[in-house]
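Methods: example folding runs. The two proteins below were folded one after another, and each record is reproduced exactly as written to the output file, sequence line first and structure-token line second.
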Amino acid sequence: MRFVIIGAGRVGLRTARVLREEGHDIVLVELDRDRVKRAREADFDVVEGDGSREEVLVEAGIEAVDALGALTADLNVNFAACMIGKHFGCRTVLRVDEDYREEVYQKYAKEVDEIVYPERLGAIGAKNALLGGSIRAIADIAQHLQVILVTVTEGSPMNGYSIEEVALPANARILAFGKKDEPMGIPLSDDSLETGDRVAVLADFDVLDDVRQLLVGDEVATAAGGA
């Protein structure tokens, strides 16, 4: 696939590297000359210019790409680039900082295909490292939804029960299940939960503590809930 990424800073350049490693074609758009030089030294195709201007994106090949990632630290530049991308019929991804979260959901979310929060993703990783234990946040799916990976403990209230018997809160769903040391897959109703098994759960933030309590137990739930 072909992608245009606006911004060759920390987020944009790292994203470009990952996509290139997977065999995709990348064009970076960057205004800062030092970043342009650094990206070119890393063998990226770079268009030097303002990513919020249509003529710059046309030079970057916006007419023939599959998706545009507006990944600068400037929300206005990112949104303008996404609107140009939508005009040319490509998928659009808008980067925002955590401070803009509520505002973006109210004003911009319907105008783009995806919104990403690099700071939030970094915070998830840091929280997981600090907490350790049997619960790991995987990703924020929407404004109030998160996917967590839970490892069943010996003291779990659901240890020994089947998937069908797990009564999660109304705003939570089991997405995947894996026996200890085995790959995860689609959960089956008669899969039994045993110590070391892993369960991926999609849950509203409001019921995360209830999910932890049910699948892990009191001790770990209390520690995780303070994060």
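Second run, written to the same file directly after the first:
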Amino acid sequence: MSADLTLILGSKTYSSWSLRPYLALRHAGLAFEEVVIPLRQTDSKARMLAHSPAGKVPALIHRTGPHRAAGGDITVWDSLAICEYAAELAPDARLWPQDAGARAHARSISAEMHSGFMDVRRNLFMDLGRTIDRPERLAKAASDITRIQAIWADCLDRYGGPFLFGAFTIADAMYAPVVTRFQTWKVPLSEASQAYVDAIEALPAMKDWRADAAKETVVLDMLLD
């Protein structure tokens, strides 16, 4: 499978959207090659367009069967779409909960993460290279921070932890970048939230991602107002 799947990623220090499918594919046990495109460089857009019609990362290229022979690779772009595709490729990995009600719940909070929490996105950008002490930024994202911790607390209580639905699912992949943002920006966390943060950070795939990020040489000057 390693020659068949290629995941196109942005800089691991900064690309929250790339982290999500990376964790899902790793959890599913799907071997894949990686192509990392540093963000915000003069050639970044052109390099992304070479892999995805959206011109963004992440993207998953799947070369298989008649598609390979015909030169018509399967391309999947968008984090959640790639996670869903991984769930189809590896159904035994149970990237969604088996119970229909829990599965609907997991999809709902994943979609909420995918399309919402704009104050967190605007004010608490992902940056694995430093910690930032800016309380005024936390204040601007306070409503989102409260809602995210409420989601975590409800899921952990309802399904028993250590992950949102007991075992690791796509929902955890979707919230993993928030775990890093909360640490970067020194967000005060409840005991339950901190336990969840610790569980995500203990994942071998998460440790590998951070190790790779630490080796990156392209440092972005992310402006703070």
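Comment on the second run: Strands lie at 5-10, 33-37, 59-62, 74-77.
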